[in-house]
Amino acid sequence: MDYLQILREIEQEISPLKNEGEVASYIPQLQKVNPDHFGICLQFLNNDCFGLGHCDKAFSIQSISKVFSVTMVYSMLGEMLWQRVGVEPSGTAFNSLVQLEYEKGIPRNPFMNAGALVVCDILCEHFDQPKDELLKFVRHLAGDQSIDFNIEVALSERDAGYKNIAMANFLKAYGNLHNKPSKVLETYFFMCSIEMSCRQLAQSFLFYAQHGQGKSLYPLTESQGKRLNALMQTCGFYDEAGEFSFKVGLPGKSGVGGGIVAIYPKKYSVAVWSPRLNKKGNSVLGLKALELLTSKSGLSIF
Amino acid sequence: MDYLQILREIEQEISPLKNEGEVASYIPQLQKVNPDHFGICLQFLNNDCFGLGHCDKAFSIQSISKVFSVTMVYSMLGEMLWQRVGVEPSGTAFNSLVQLEYEKGIPRNPFMNAGALVVCDILCEHFDQPKDELLKFVRHLAGDQSIDFNIEVALSERDAGYKNIAMANFLKAYGNLHNKPSKVLETYFFMCSIEMSCRQLAQSFLFYAQHGQGKSLYPLTESQGKRLNALMQTCGFYDEAGEFSFKVGLPGKSGVGGGIVAIYPKKYSVAVWSPRLNKKGNSVLGLKALELLTSKSGLSIF
Amino acid sequence: MDYLQILREIEQEISPLKNEGEVASYIPQLQKVNPDHFGICLQFLNNDCFGLGHCDKAFSIQSISKVFSVTMVYSMLGEMLWQRVGVEPSGTAFNSLVQLEYEKGIPRNPFMNAGALVVCDILCEHFDQPKDELLKFVRHLAGDQSIDFNIEVALSERDAGYKNIAMANFLKAYGNLHNKPSKVLETYFFMCSIEMSCRQLAQSFLFYAQHGQGKSLYPLTESQGKRLNALMQTCGFYDEAGEFSFKVGLPGKSGVGGGIVAIYPKKYSVAVWSPRLNKKGNSVLGLKALELLTSKSGLSIF
Amino acid sequence: MDYLQILREIEQEISPLKNEGEVASYIPQLQKVNPDHFGICLQFLNNDCFGLGHCDKAFSIQSISKVFSVTMVYSMLGEMLWQRVGVEPSGTAFNSLVQLEYEKGIPRNPFMNAGALVVCDILCEHFDQPKDELLKFVRHLAGDQSIDFNIEVALSERDAGYKNIAMANFLKAYGNLHNKPSKVLETYFFMCSIEMSCRQLAQSFLFYAQHGQGKSLYPLTESQGKRLNALMQTCGFYDEAGEFSFKVGLPGKSGVGGGIVAIYPKKYSVAVWSPRLNKKGNSVLGLKALELLTSKSGLSIF
Question: Fewer Cβ close by (within 10 Å): the C or N end of chain A?
Answer without folding.
Answer: N
